[in-house]
Specification:
This protein is of the alpha+beta class. About 35% of the residues have low confidence. Helix 1 packs across helix 3 and helix 2 packs across helix 3. It has a 6-stranded antiparallel β-sheet with strand order 3-4-13-7-11-10, with no helix packed on it. Strands 5, 6, 8, 9 and 12 form a 5-stranded antiparallel β-sheet that branches. A two-stranded antiparallel sheet has the order 1-2.
Length: about 250
């Protein structure tokens, strides 16, 4: 039986627990982050019974030579193990895992990530976009006195609003890249009327750009002055299309 066939049997005919229990010598295969197919690949490792693994190397296909180890045994049955197909399957798995870049701050609508407002550069991971306009916002929670937070974030009810007792702290450059090409850029500083608020957060829009469908983008903010006093308000950078909520 080919490995790919046995994977399907393990996954869909109820042999998963038996195979994993007999083959998981160190317990790592039962990690809660492993998917059903991950566990099936562990079960496929049964041909290596008797040559126990010390770590995840076999699962990660680092020891392809172990594929030459004899036969696949389960419940007294003997199944021929196709080493060549297993090797090909390993290389395909490695290739696919390399293509699927991990992005813990990516959402279905864009980016939502915690940031620091200290002087320096903040850069998002590369993310896929849908066609249309995206807003680049800095969002904070109401964890400072209301008037102080509004003033230091630069909130202004109108362009002539000068009634703050605290100076605005945000002074930054922003740009959006696809590959090495800059598709949009700008400066945002001082007071602004581009705000949204609810009972949990205050959000300042610092820029926007038009995305093309299926393109990948990176947003970069360069904070020119230190605004880290606002870090207590747990700032986040969000990049999303108008009308979406994370």
């Amino acid at each position: 039986m080919a490995v790919s066939d046995y994977v399907n049997q393990v996954m869909f005919q109820g042999h998963m627990g038996e195979a994993v229990d007999s083959n998981d010598t160190n317990g790592w295969a039962t990690d809660k982050n492993f998917t059903l197919s991950d566990r099936a690949f562990v079960a496929v490792g049964m041909p290596f019974k008797g040559r126990e693994r010390s770590d995840q190397d076999t699962y990660n296909c680092k020891h392809i030579e172990l594929a030459n180890h004899g036969q696949l045994s389960r419940g007294g049955d003997s199944m021929k193990f196709n080493a060549r197909r297993f090797s090909i399957l390993c290389f395909l798995t490695i290739g696919l895992s390399g293509m699927a870049q991990d992005c813990g701050v990516c959402t279905k609508n864009g980016i939502d990530m915690p940031i620091s407002l200290a002087a320096g550069v903040v850069r998002t991971p590369e993310f896929s976009a849908k066609r249309g306009f995206y807003n680049v916002d800095i969002e904070v929670k109401w964890l400072l006195p209301t008037d102080q937070l509004r003033c230091e974030m630069g909130f202004a009810a109108s362009p002539s609003d000068n009634h703050c007792s605290w100076k605005p702290l945000l002074d930054l450059r922003w740009k959006v890249l696809t590959g090495s090409d800059v598709v949009a850029e700008g400066i945002d500083s001082g007071r602004s009327t581009s705000f949204e608020a609810d009972k949990y957060t205050l959000s300042r829009s610092v820029g926007s750009f038009k995305a093309a469908a299926h393109h990948k983008y990176v947003v970069e903010l360069t904070f020119l002055k230190d605004a880290s006093v606002l870090n207590v308000a747990q700032p986040r950078l969000t990049v999303e299309q108008p009308g979406f909520s994370f």
